[in-house]
Specification:
Distance between the termini: 38 Å
Number of helices: 4
Helix content: 25-40%
Structural class: alpha+beta
Number of strands: 5
Order of helices and strands: HHEEHEHEE
Strand content: 15-25%
Oligomer: single chain
Length: 146
């Protein structure tokens, strides 16, 4: 897959969107947009991605559509959701937290949605996949261990 590029019209739309979703000025919006595009272009192909899911029964997990929202850094995923995962170990909730690891071709990345999510929520560093993750390879589905 070649490099992802943004035409002038789309570039202006992204900057406007960034300003509408919380960036204080055009310069910081441009810097974030550049950061996100460079990060996407520098991903390996295929790319390993991680997702947190809560399941009552792991056999109920749909392997054909593993989901849309992922991150690249599993340690950050755990750190950002640690309290939520601990809560789900309580006796009040039957579901348990699992870390899903997949391998995806870059061609399955929804670049437009990924860029918008990273402009609206830069701290999440989320990667969005097309078609609910169809066509990706499941590497593992592991119960989160405290």
């Amino acid at each position: 897959m070649g490099k992802y590029t943004i035409d002038k019209k789309k570039y202006k739309e992204y900057i406007k969107y960034a300003l509408e979703t919380g960036f204080d000025d055009e310069e910081s919006a441009k810097e974030q947009l550049s950061y996100v595009v460079n990060k996407l272009n520098n991903l390996s192909d295929p790319v390993k991605l991680y997702r947190l899911i809560f399941l009552d029964d792991p056999s109920s997990f749909d392997k054909n559509q593993p989901g849309v929202h992922y991150v690249i850094n599993v340690k950050k995923l755990i750190r950002d959701h640690y309290d939520e995962m601990l809560y789900n170990y309580s006796k009040f909730d039957e579901s348990k937290p699992y870390i899903l690891t997949i391998e995806s071709p870059k061609s399955k990345i929804d670049f437009d949605t990924t860029i918008k999510n990273n402009l609206a929520y830069p701290h999440e560093e989320e990667i969005s996949l097309l078609n609910a993750g169809q066509g990706t390879k499941i590497i593992s589905l592991n119960l989160f261990n405290r």
